[in-house]
Amino acid sequence: MTMPETKECPFCAETIKYNAIICRYCQQKLPVANKEGTFPDQQPLEPNENKQPATKLDISLPSIQSTFQKFLQEEIRKDNHTLMKAGILLPV
Ligand SMILES: [Zn+2]
């Protein structure tokens, strides 16, 4: 099994070195072939937990935040001392 020595540049169609990462003719960055001879850029997207961890609980949602803040502000109005005891301090 031998590796091809040359390939065709996908941008300018000139024959360039197979392992070239930048075309010598048009200076375009070329997709780098891996050991299997396939181009990662051309592969269909596969689920990859390491690269993109799924966020199941997004507490930074504005609606949840405002609801929580409203709740806290009402609690503060009801009983300021309870929250102070719990250690919750909010700029009101
Ligand atoms: Zn080229």
Explain the overall architecture.
The chain is α+β, with helices and mostly antiparallel strands and 92 residues long. It folds into two domains: 1-32, no CATH class; 59-92. Helices cover 26% and strands 7% of the residues. It is built from two helices and two strands; from the N terminus they run E-E-H-H. It has helices spanning 62-78, 80-86; strands spanning 6-8, 15-17. It has a two-stranded antiparallel sheet. Strand 1 and strand 2 (15-17) form a beta hairpin. Helix 1 packs across helix 2. The longest helix is centred in the last third of the chain and has 17 residues, at 62-78. The structure holds zinc ion. Zinc ion (ZN) binds at residues 9, 11-12, 14, 23, 25-26, 28.
The first-to-last residue Cα distance is 72 Å
Portion in strands: 5-15%
- Which small molecules are bound? zinc ion
- Could you give the order of the helices and strands? EEHH
Largest sheet: 2 strands, antiparallel
- Average pLDDT, rounded to a whole number, is 75
Structural class: alpha+beta
In short:
By secondary structure, the protein is an alpha+beta fold. It is 26% helix and 7% strand. The longest helix has 17 residues, at 62-78.
Note the topology:
Blueprint lengths: L5 E3 L6 E3 L44 H17 L1 H7 L6
Helix pairs in contact: 1-2
Offer a few descriptive terms.
92 residues; 2 domains; two-stranded antiparallel sheet; 2 helices; 26% helix; binds zinc ion
